[in-house]
Amino acid sequence: MPKGSIVFISDFSDYGSDTAIRQVLQRLTKSQFIIRLSQGIYYYPKTDNMIGIVYPSAEQIAEAIKNRDHARIIPTGSYASYTLGLSTQLPMNVVYLTDGSPRKIQVGKQKITFRKTSPKNLAVKHNLTSLIIQGLKELGEENIEPHHLNEIKAIIEKSEEAEKVKENIKYAPVWVQKLVLKILNRIKNE
Questions:
Q1: 40 shares its domain with 65
Q2: How many other CB atoms are found less than 10 A from the CB of residue 186?
Q3: Global model pTM greater than 0.85
Q4: Which residues have CB under 8 Å from 163's CB, separation 6+?
Q5: Are residues 6 and 99 in the same domain?
Q6: Torsion angle of alpha carbons 66, 116, 166, 83, nearest 10°?
Q7: CA-CA distance, 106 to 2, in Å (whole number)?
Q8: β-strands 93-98, 73-75 pairing
Q9: Which residues pair with 105 in a beta bridge?
Q10: Domain with 150 in it
């Protein structure tokens, strides 16, 4: 595996029992060949000459868990707002909706939470549309200001995916649909 890979005990199940694999991973952790991020999650560290070990982001860890579990995930709340640029604060607690197993993972000072949700909430197959929906829901209908809408407009224009957003916005709450369709009409008329 290349440096920067996130590995799980299950990745080595063909090579022995879980107990034997755990022991080998513990030895590799003691020798600092790999780093234990959380229970059952290990990292083959990537290093930089200037800053030393480059740790994976919450998003990279969540993606690795999603791929391992063959689950769907979407970021919610303040992390979706941050990813969109509607907020400048990187949250210490990252929450994802999932159709996989619910769990909480502590990685250093950051907590990653996977919350079980209904298939309806995961129906949007377009990542940008998902982020827009979750970001607007986090702000709340009564807290949306013109600069939020302008930021979303700029993101849609930059991504050049207005048609995909239009196709997928039908899964959003009605008030979010109205706001996004208004933004899409502004883009179309300019």
A1: no
A2: 14
A3: no
A4: none
A5: no
A6: -60
A7: 24
A8: antiparallel
A9: 112
A10: 57-190
CA 60 to chain centroid, in Å, comes to: 8
Q: What is the pLDDT of residue 188?
A: 86
Amino acid at 48: D
Whether residues 39 and 68 share a domain: the answer is no
Mean per-residue pLDDT pooled into runs of 10, the chain (190 residues) = 92 91 94 92 92 89 93 88 83 89 87 90 87 90 90 90 90 92 88
d(CA 182, CA 54): 41
Residue type, 80: A
In terms of domains, do 36 and 102 share one?
no
Verify that 140 and 185 share a domain, yes or no.
yes
Strands (E), the chain: 6-8, 35-38, 41-43, 46-48, 52-54, 73-75, 93-98, 103-107, 110-116
Residue that is written with structure tokens 């022995």 in the block: 16
> Residue 129: what pLDDT?
92
Question: Does residue 90 sit in the same domain as residue 145?
Answer: yes
Query: What is the total count of domains within the chain?
Result: 2
Q: DSSP character for 50?
A: T
Has residue 129 been placed in a domain? yes
